[in-house]
Give the backbone structure.
Amino acid sequence: TTGGLCFNGDCRASWAEAGSFWEGSLSGNIKNKNTGNVGIGTNNPKDKLHVVGDISLGVHSTDQTYRYAISSGNNNGYLAFGYKNGGSSWYTNNPSLALTYTGNVGIGTTNPGADKLAVVGTLSASNGIKVSGSSFGNFIYGRLGVGHGTAGASKLAVNGNQSIGSSYFSYAAPADGLIVQGRVGIGTTTPIQKLHVQGAVGTNGNDSATLFTSYNTSAAGSPQQLNIKHNYGTVEIRNERGNIGFTAGNIGIGTTNPGSYKLYVNGSTYLNGATTINGQATFKQPANFEGGVNITGNITMTGGDIKSANKITAAVFDPLYNIKGTNYSTFAASIAGGLKEEYIGRLAAADFSEKDGYYETVIDLSKEEEGSDLWVWYHVVDFNEQNVDVFLTPRNSFASTYALISDAQIIIRSDRPADLSMRLIGRRFDWRDWPTKPLDQTEKTSLIIK
């Protein structure tokens, strides 16, 4: 055609004649022959096509129910895709991208299904991924890697430190470490302690492994540790107060090196209850036993005393002496008839005074010097005529003597003044508690007479 072509009847836009910017003889197509930009709704287009306003595609009916639209709405810098009253979807292929009318997004696939976001391929996020919600239907399948470009060989691989628990959210765990606020269960779904292991715990290494360490953060001191040394077959429990060691079946308390002893205690020992030792026992420090002690073997004490022993059941008591390199036994005598205490002393002839036809001396035990040997003997025996025996032996000459027991006195009479050796034997104050036939007939003894 020649001349101009007007649109909308008011010639606000025109189709110019040949040689102008527009050409309309392209089998129904319209081409802009100008190399510049086209503006719709603006006379200053910034791009090849610059639209100021909304774009509607499809049927645009009077009720505004257009099928497709690209709209900036009231939000500058945003685009909205979809059917105004719902029911439509938007997608593109190669690469696959889909946005369904239900609000689900597919990346790498045009069929996201029921998932809000379905990604087929690798997902990369530089500032982290946040997932929130009160319910879920499915877990993550496959492998998940955090802090690394690949998922790793495990179902969950974390390259870096981790913190678990709402109170630990703002705390940084050690490098490649893990901090947990609550309880950790291994082999159990109901841990009752901070670390609850249901089953065996194993360690492996060429030298040693520390299985447990407890640090005292409020005071200085070494940490408490449980160490296992594989090559040496030892287990050690350490703290700043002392050590316990287990080596090749031997136990050390107060030391991690028990040597060849089955039990080596470095320090004082207190045992409350019956104790049975089958073998040799060596004590280099005080040992307190509260309860029965049964020992099959030898007890070797390097110095020290046996204190507060109620009863010692033994076949022989042998104070052993070494004289000029040779050992000599001096056996202690045993006495039948209950517990007894002895005192041995001397009387001089000058101690006697003449009476009517005889000589007499009186030992008044109530007037003996406190703390003297005779004073102690008097206070530990059941002193009366039935429980005390007096043995008198003249020295240097012959004499006929006898003794009388009266109240707290021992009266000694002789036919002449004489030097005497005196032996006093009395039942101990608690002799009734230790009868000749013991109340406990289950005690073991090596002295058997049939």
Residues 373-380 form the longest helix (8 residues). Confidence is low (pLDDT under 50) at residues 75-80.
